[in-house]
Inverse folding.
């Protein structure tokens, strides 16, 4: 197999490639934050009676809350702020498909590139 | 021990220095991870309750034991900077290697961001001064640690060893100070974790808790980044990594026991400082201040190790021409990948100011889990392409393929856990990796020399 000689990349091309990667990193990490997609859905199950008992806290728990500086009123939003786990099947299926598709592409494309590497490396000898 | 750094002679190829021993490998791994005991793991209690946090502590501990076993075998054999990146390059292929390097850079940079936010918030909380914000503390942390990394790996990891050891000892001191063998005096586990509140969301809460359970140990695999700078990779890497994992399992168990026995799970799940709070609740000013200082030290050690690891992964990409070769420069005097260190600095700073702690942790976890999924498949391919006996391995992990299968299954569960809270972020990140992979495969790879990527003195892999 003939040895592959890569083209020389100009300085401007190198700078452009760096810019592409940086922009992609920021878009991937920043966009979900900007669009408010990050973070799990929690909501407060409000109670009318704001007492330690109504909040499901026994005397030991209540004494610790108080030691931490909380009253039943101020602790209410922490204690009653709960997750509501719901399996959204279409999103789950999309996520699974995206993940599987990604890994399949990675391994297949990598294998094609790897064969070239091995052929060049070992056919030289 | 000190080693005088001589500038490389003109015309010499400048390489990273081999100056590290097993203690530095331990300091790198445990230093990155230990902050997880000071914050982060407790968010798993929020997702599933106190008992869920304990269950994931053990089960995720099993995941990371598999990671450490697999990593020790592959890295003691593929001893090159970039760690898992170098493994992927030799075992799976260039595109996978490119992605793995990005997983590493994202995981460590976002972990560094989380550490800096934690450090800033902790100082602000301690100061209690109205109007004081964490911004200046975050910026100072990131810049000073980048400078330390710029100046040399030996000094960086010596510092890490000391501050990690102090932070670890503080957990041990707290544990023995609260009379762990007696319930009712300081610790009140039976009254705080009851049959009625142990699993408030049932078993789905346990699965959801996996997301932050990862934080107990995330980053231990970073030990492999030092592969090109340890004096004896075959001995130091497995020894340092496994010792680190044992250390962390003990710390995680002690941390859960003390914190779950001192705070209601609803509070434990939202506090940013579970160990510091535990120190406060003992009523001892000495313990309170010790845990405050230890929280800062753990955050510093972790950020320090993360800068070290992220820069080496980025440096490796440049050295193989996967990214412009400009990044592959080694400082002629300090022998560090200084351009990579400097390049990643503003990215870390930017995200420290736009993400909150919870989100930065999730970004890091997402990249980590993608990487562990790769590792479970990678070890199977490694054993198939170079069966035992065909090449010299520094360490051979036992019970293959059970650790790989366990790791893969736990990764699937963790993906589901992430879906329960951060599914949109996961899809966005995978979409990013997919698009950047297309860019690499169809455009960037043309600048890469083919055969030169394979640098190990191994025979041709089986099946090729």
């Amino acid at each position: 197999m003939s040895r592959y000689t890569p083209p020389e990349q100009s300085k401007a091309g190198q700078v452009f490639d760096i810019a592409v990667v940086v922009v992609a990193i920021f878009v991937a990490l920043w966009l979900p934050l900007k669009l408010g997609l990050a973070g799990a859905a929690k909501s407060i199950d409000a109670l009318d009676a704001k007492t330690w008992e109504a909040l499901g806290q026994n005397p030991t728990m209540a004494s610790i809350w108080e030691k931490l500086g909380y009253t039943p009123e101020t602790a209410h939003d922490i204690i009653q702020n709960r997750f509501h786990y719901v399996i959204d099947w279409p999103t789950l299926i999309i996520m699974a498909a995206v993940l599987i598709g990604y890994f399949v592409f990675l391994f297949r494309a990598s294998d094609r590139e790897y064969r070239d590497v091995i052929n060049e490396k070992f056919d030289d000898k | 021990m000190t080693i005088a750094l001589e500038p490389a002679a003109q015309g010499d190829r400048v390489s990273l220095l081999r100056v590290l021993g097993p203690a530095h490998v331990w300091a790198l791994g445990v230093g990155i991870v230990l902050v997880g005991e000071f914050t982060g793991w407790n968010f798993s209690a929020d997702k599933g309750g106190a008992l869920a946090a304990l269950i994931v502590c053990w089960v995720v501990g099993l995941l990371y034991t598999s990671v450490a076993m697999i990593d020790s075998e592959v890295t003691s054999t593929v001893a090159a900077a970039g760690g898992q990146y170098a493994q992927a390059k030799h075992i799976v292929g260039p595109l996978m290697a490119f992605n793995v390097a990005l997983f590493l850079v994202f995981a460590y940079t976002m972990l560094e961001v989380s550490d800096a936010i934690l450090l800033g918030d902790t100082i602000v909380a301690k100061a209690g001064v109205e109007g004081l914000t964490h911004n200046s503390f975050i910026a100072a942390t990131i810049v000073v640690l980048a400078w330390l990394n710029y100046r040399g790996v030996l000094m960086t990891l010596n510092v890490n060893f000391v501050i990690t050891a102090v932070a670890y000892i503080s957990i041990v001191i707290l544990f023995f100070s609260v009379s762990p063998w007696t319930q009712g005096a300081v610790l009140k586990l039976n009254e705080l974790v009851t049959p009625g509140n142990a699993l408030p969301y049932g078993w789905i809460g346990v699965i959801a808790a996996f997301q932050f359970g990862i934080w107990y140990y995330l980053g231990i695999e970073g030990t492999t980044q030092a592969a090109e700078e340890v004096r004896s990779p075959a001995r130091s890497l497995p020894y340092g990594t496994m010792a680190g994992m044992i250390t962390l399992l003990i710390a995680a168990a002690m941390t859960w026991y003390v914190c779950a026995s001192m705070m209601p799970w609803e509070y434990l799940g939202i506090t940013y400082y579970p160990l510091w709070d535990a120190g406060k609740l003992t009523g001892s000013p000495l313990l309170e201040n010790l845990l405050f200082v230890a929280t800062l030290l753990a955050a510093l050690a972790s950020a320090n190790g993360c800068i070290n690891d992220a820069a080496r992964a980025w440096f490796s990409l440049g050295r193989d021409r996967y990214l412009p070769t400009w990044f592959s420069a080694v400082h002629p005097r300090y022998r560090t990948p200084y351009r990579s260190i400097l390049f990643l600095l503003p990215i870390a700073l930017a995200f420290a100011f736009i993400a909150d702690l919870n989100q930065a942790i999730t970004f890091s976890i997402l990249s980590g889990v993608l990487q562990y999924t790769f590792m479970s498949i990678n070890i199977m391919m490694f054993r198939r392409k170079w069966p035992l006996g065909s090449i010299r391995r520094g360490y051979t992990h036992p019970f293959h393929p059970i650790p790989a299968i366990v790791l893969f299954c736990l990764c699937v569960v963790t993906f589901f856990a992430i879906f329960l809270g951060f599914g949109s972020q996961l899809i966005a990140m995978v979409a990013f990796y997919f698009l950047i992979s297309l860019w690499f495969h169809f455009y960037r790879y043309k600048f890469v020399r083919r055969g030169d990527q394979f640098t190990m003195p191994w025979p041709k892999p089986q099946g090729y």
